[in-house]
Amino acid sequence: MSARYQVIHDTHYQYATAVSLAKQLAHLWPRDCAWQRCIVRELNVEPAPTQRRDELDIFGNPLTRLAFERPHEALRVEARLDVEILARPLLDPLQSPPWEDASAALSYSGAPLSAEVLEASRFRFESPAVRLKYSFVDYAEDCFTPGRPLLQGVQALMQKIFREFTFDATATQVATPLLEVLEKRRGVCQDFAHLMIACLRSRGLAARYVSGYLLTQPPPGQPRLIGADASHAWVSVYCPRQGWVDFDPTNNVQPGLEHITLAWGRDFSDVSPLRGVILGGGSHDPDVQVTVTPAGEVAVAPERE
Amino acid sequence: MPDLLADCPPTPRAYHEMLDASGRVRPHWDKLYQHLERSSPAQLEQRQALLDRQILENGVTYNVYADPKGTDRPWALDLLPNLISAEEWQGIAAGVAQRARLLDSVLADIYGPQQLLADGLLPTELVFGHNNFLWPCQGIRPPGGTYLHSYAVDLRRAPDGRWWVIADRTQTPSGAGYALENRQIISRTFPDLFRELRVQHLSSYFRTLRETLVQQAPREDNETPMVVLLTPGRFNETYFEHLYLARHLGFPLVEGSDLTVRNATLYLKTLGGLQRVHAVLRRLDDDFCDPLELRTDSALGVPGLLEAVRQGRVLVANALGSGVLESPGLLGFLPKIQEKLFGEELLLPSIATWWCGEAPVLEQALEKLADLLVMPAFPSQSFVPQFGHDLDAAGLANLTRRIRARPYAYVAQEVAQLSQAPVWQDEHMQSRAIGMRVYAVASADGYRVMPGGLTRVSAESGAQVVAMQSGGGSKDTWVLAGHAALGEAPRPRPLGVHDVVRRDPHLPSRIVENLFWFGRYAERCDDLTRLLRVVLSRYVGDDDEPMALATALQLAEDLGVLPDEEEGTLEERLFVALLGEDWIYSLRANLQRLNWTASQVRGRLSRENWLALMEIQREAQTLEREEADLGELLDFLNRLLMSLSALSGFALDDMTRDDGWRFLMIGRRIERLQFLAEAIAGFLDGEAVQDQAALEWLLELGNSTITYRSRYQAAPQLIPVLDLLLLDEQNPHAALFQLLELEKALDHLGEQFGSQNELTLALLTDRLRLVDLGTLENALFGEAGKRAVLNGLSQLLRAVGEAAGQLSDRLALRFFAHVDASQQTVSS
């Protein structure tokens, strides 16, 4: 089983005043992993950057560094991807070890660590967007009853967030603190992913933030529209026996053929699709359009009103 | 001084630096003790006064917290140095150097192969869980291979006489500058004793620091490396030290916005363009250094700095991310690591520490929690250290619960025993608890330890905490020379004619901009003070000159100095104009702006100049509305004018005439020209042009009363007054004088930076020069003709005032435009 998609991620800044100097970091190319292959990747940037360097960041994600040293009034960054997704084996949650054991396996004991555990340990602690508080321990208390298999507990947590939280794009911004999300019970995929990560890390578990795309289906009888999609985020948790396992609390699913992975890190701040510092510019709001099209289909431009 | 020890009994439970267990003075303290015994109370009082004066004069301060109103606290320095014998110092120095080498190796490992983590010698919790472990720095090898260029360690002496490590400072160790300042003051306070005891010098530490940075800085073959000192700015608690160190080391003191990264290379923005920076001695915390890759909410850093470091184009000292080693949780792991890496034992013991991340250790710590000090393992935690003995049962239970929820984030420590040292307080010798911070610096052949350090003193007797933030003081630390090691005289590289520098090559644009505004505000305060004095003196004076007062008031209103009549009685309006907190044109508001810009350029002002500014600030602060009456206010204005003219004297004679000075003077000229032109235009439009008393105040406003009197020895009349205030090229307060000086300065800038010519200004200068005051004599067209001439003159002056304002804007655009704020962008 496999699926193939074309993805277009188009970011457009129109600045109020000229920007004299800018640096941008783009996490817009998918990383290769066991269940995913990127066949075509392009990154079109306008104006032409003064410098551009493509490399891997410290978490192994493709990263493009862009610098603009001439005044410009707009910036367009367009990623065009052709990605193939392979089915991942389904895991039996009951086969996973008790969550306490998973946590203990990552805790310091003075014994040498395997490369895998050392790698997982990167994702166990506070990070810029994920502060650890008691509230997160409390919130997930009923999901992690003593001795419960880890993946079962994580599944329960995913369901709980899906059930109790409302998707609301107006409720939060990039910088909204997690405690506020928890209190309001509203947010977007990024908030739900951060919240779930906070709940897991508060219990000493390793959890990472995955940035990517999700195939959406147009309403029945209507064509697939350009720009109808958005970037997406979910969570991956480390299980000592099964390795990393993905969970999408926004949709209450375990990602399979419809999730396209871009990058992973400790939280959004490690893998923001496009982030930068500009000199000048005045006020600015990016216009972002994402289009995910299954191979063989065609997306059409929406009608202008 | 009889009975020195009356208030200084032996301290049986703590080690006493000066007294042994039986209360006898330790041998290495003998000379100091005898010196004090021989001194009369008056002599000691004199020494104390000398010390206090030096602190005040040098402007040594410590900001307790960020307060925009500027409450710098004077540095607290005790008269008596702490003495360490040569023999004892050898042990301390060897231990500190060893520890610095170890911590440097640990940094190299955790930002490199992470073998210590894989081997279980270091917990991942303490490294990856620390907010100063910077993932983007992983894999970066600094140029020169050193991570820890400067290091400090906090030591406490236990009752058994041994020194124990209680904390490591690896990020941006502070206090070395204060130690040097303390030394300069105390060595002058006891000059003979200082020589006699052969105290080891501190200067080699700073020389080594400079050499290391210069040598390790990456550069092209033909470049002389530029090293800058990066400060978070004047609100930092140790800003004084940044200033002091920058001056002592000869590094430009810069803020993040003075720097820019282009093509992975760091530059300083100077008036003459971008200049490459090869090394940065930073006093800015790890995660604030680069808003692009580190803390994105930091406004203090330099976007792209990390990439410049990664590409090996700039040295940052200490290496970014070095703060991770400041976690107290690490103390217990270091002995094993030292053994593993170097096969030896640590020479300096650390205080007993329980990192709660290991289950058995956690249980031990909880068992004796009441005797321990509990600290956060990471600076990002909002947890204030707590002494177990300060808590009741409920408090302990609460703390236990908190620790159990995330054990790896807590560290328990034995409560440090502090030794006692004599201090001089209230004319008596007393004992206080002390701790010592010792510094080491990397050199080509290992770490060198500063022979001395910052001794910190607890605020009260019996207190067990020494910290500058909590009101403690400091001491100079005298390490006595052994027989062999005499303090070497500093030997700087001899400079020849090729090294002669005639122009400061690193003048940051921000400094220039602030000098420009410093000039403008200084002059504006001067003008305002004169105008208010004119009004106030006419108002409280008993000479009956209603016309003079009325026209002066009218002018003050027209110039926006005095609030409108609806705002209250004249007296109330005058108070607002002088002291109004909310009136943005008030004298007080402008004095505040003057102080603010001055503090931005403090590094460029001489000590005397700075003192004059402090004086102005003090004066302004003493004035409170409810206390002052109009007579006092008038007196204040007179004193203020004196201080302000001192400032203008400093501007003329105390500063090197570099580009920064040129901008300061341009600022002053523009401001004065604008004020004069608008004030005289307003005067000419009014009804009092022939009124003697009014002309009198006009002269006063133009600071030309004396000149007029000596020239004419008669009551003022319109034509000679106008000549003196407008056309006299010799009068430094005349409008034409300002125009000609401005022209000269702008020509100079034009030659240097290729700025465009100021045609409007030249045109106006010519028109002013051609003004013929004779047309006012000639009554050919009677009074109407005279009015027309006056109107013409006033229009010309208004055009001059406007041109001055536009010139200011154009200069800002041309020279300061890249002093712009950067902002973050993020998109999903």
From TrEMBL, chain A:
GO terms for biological process: proteolysis. Gene3D superfamilies: 3.10.620.30. Residues 181-251 form the Transglutaminase-like domain. The keyword Protease applies. SMART domains: TGc (SM00460). Pfam families: Bact_transglu_N (PF08379), Transglut_core (PF01841). GO terms for molecular function: peptidase activity. Keywords: Hydrolase, Protease. This is Transglutaminase-like enzyme, putative cysteine protease. It comes from Pseudomonas kuykendallii.
From TrEMBL, chain B:
Residues 507-816 form the DUF403 domain. It comes from the Bacteria. PANTHER family: BLR2978 PROTEIN (PTHR34595:SF2), BLR5612 PROTEIN (PTHR34595). This is Uncharacterized conserved protein, circularly permuted ATPgrasp superfamily. InterPro entries: ATP-dep_Glu-Cys_Ligase-2, CP_ATPgrasp_2, DUF403. Residues 81-458 form the Circularly permuted ATP-grasp type domain.
